[in-house]
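Q: Here's a chain of 229 amino acids. Please give me its 3D structure as tokens.
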Amino acid sequence: MSYTILLMDADETLLDFRRSEGFALERTLQSYGVAMTPAIHDAYHEINRVLWQQLERGEIARSALRTVRFERLFAQIGLQGVDADAFNTAYMQTLGGTGFLLPGALELLRDLHTRFRVYLVTNGTASVQHTRLQHSGMLPFLHGVFISEEVGADKPSERFFEHVLSSIGNPDKREVLVIGDSLTSDIEGGRRMGLDTCWYAPDPAASANNIEPTYRVASFDELRSLLAV
């Protein structure tokens, strides 16, 4: 193993997306006079998760996803008279103002960037991801950022990873490791490109199903050990 380049996912690998999502949803609901509850948050999280998986498979457009998720949420919780498009705009603005990191993520990047070229590879809305990254403090430790909306393709598509590899000089694939929490996005995308992959899976009960990563780690310390950092 002689990796020199790490392609790292953002949300739920380094960034605490669930916290950011909950914060933005609560603030936006409050602006519409609706109190946040755990049930509402869990309902939205599941709706959004399913839609993003559909986006990965090319079954829904990003523009549609942004409003469909709230239309479905409003229907589920019985909220009427709220325009989903306007709600989404307010939500996205609030989400962009967050930069919550998973515990230890910044320290990990500080350790990695002295040994590896670290690139962030993320599915997401460019304006939101850029502002979140600015707030997170991660940018000084990254060699570059690739966001699906700007690339014009989403993980796990080969188009996305082809663009990334071309942009960083078409390195030997044996020197590249893809690291992320999503089997269907990060691990499957890396596998399609013939790249080694590392599945970040803090839940020991999580199953890889039929998608087999090259490595599996449950913590940042395990990732450090794997990379001999």
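Q: Can you summarize the key feature?
A: DSSP finds ten helices and six strands in the chain.
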